[in-house]
From TrEMBL:
It is found in: Cytoplasm. Residues 5-214 form the Cytidylate kinase domain. NCBIfam families: cmk. One of its GO terms (molecular function) is dCMP kinase activity. Keywords: ATP-binding, Cytoplasm, Kinase, Nucleotide-binding, Transferase. One of its GO terms (cellular component) is cytosol. ATP binds at residues 9-17. One of its GO terms (biological process) is pyrimidine nucleotide metabolic process. It catalyses: dCMP + ATP = dCDP + ADP; CMP + ATP = CDP + ADP. Its EC number is 2.7.4.25. This is Cytidylate kinase. Its main location: cytoplasm.
Amino acid sequence: MIPVITVDGPSGSGKGTIAQRVAQSLGWHFLDSGAIYRALGLYAEQQGVGSEEVDALAALARTMPLNFRQDEVLLDGKEISALIRTEAVGNAASKVAAIPEVREALLEWQREFARAPGLVADGRDMGTVVFPNAEVKIFLTASPEERALRRYKQLKEKGLSANLAGLTVEIRERDERDCNRAVAPLKAAFDALELDSTEMDVDAVYASVMARVRSRLPGL
Ligand code: DC
């Protein structure tokens, strides 16, 4: 059995940063499942497939020419890492992610990322649906205001335009959609460690996560 650590939570909770750091320090593989949904949102737009075309979207999910190479995300051989980080693509991702057939089509593929020596998987349903038997499950949250502020700073750092009030509204709308969808809604697994990072810095969150990892996987 390949050990798996899941890190779930809403956008802007810091789960990506934490999951990546944990993967790096353990020398484990990393799955950014949000990037898959983001790439699909982008791909559907490029292919002219609307968010209501369920069968066509599921077919795209099954055949999407997506690859991960170190820090790069490649769609049909083209680097899309920066392109999929925009709020527009995030919203498109959240819409396609609400479709059960799309989630089903992506399930086995995501599970194949579990390879030796281990996997850290970042997403919304990693601990509840994709890897329900994961050894360590983390659910990371933060207030919507704090998450909007973090996203605002991230976008500014990348030299992209950003509007804090608009981001707060978008984050609330996306939370609403991700939490209330019928399939694999954003929620903590019953056996997850829930951490609210609103008042914590990255180092403090990382320390709490690693303490949990070491208590669950004492051999590490
Ligand atoms: O984590 P992120 O912001 O990159 O995710 C983008 C969207 O993809 C998010 O709004 C919800 C969806 N998503 C999902 O439904 N399930 C996942 N495991 C990961 C992301």
